[in-house]
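#lab-general

N.A. 3:47 PM
ok so I finally got the sequence cleaned up, no stray characters, all 182 residues accounted for. can someone with queue access submit it? mine expired

B.Y. 3:52 PM
send it over

N.A. 3:53 PM
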Amino acid sequence: MTDKRDEYIIRLSGVEIGNHKYSMICDKAFFELTRLDEIEEGTIQVRIEMEKSAKMMSLQLHFEGDVTVVCDRCLDFLTFPLDFIDFLVVNFVSHIDESFENDDNIWQIHEKAHELDLTHFLYEAIELALPTQLIHSDDENGNPTCNPQMLRKLAELTSNKTEQTTEIDPRWNALEQLRIKN
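B.Y. 4:20 PM
back already:
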């Protein structure tokens, strides 16, 4: 039985200099492997075009698919489409400089490395492609398509909070009067 992580490793030993194409699928097992909590499930096809030279290789990764996430507003599931391209440059070095930290898109690996594990790169690329706020889109009239029951509850709680904050502590009124006089 192979480890799920093996599916996201590109073997480098024996790969000739030139252009190569790879394909990977990030599915529910991938999201469980990487512990990507925001994503409940999904299927993302990753097409990779790799150009390998003697001292480096560049990868262009095209991500395309859908993920299921929890809506930040109503907490229902939301299918979110992804379609983006990311790049990775990998330099082959004889000695890895300890002061060099792999950048998001520029890595160093030993020139005798036999494989390149893309698991973490794929994880980060997908994570960064998601918007900071994941909510259902509005309909053509500008109305939210979230769970109506949850929207009513949110409106109720928000109006109660607004009523509570409208009462101003009398001590602040006294301070406000001092500020107005000056």
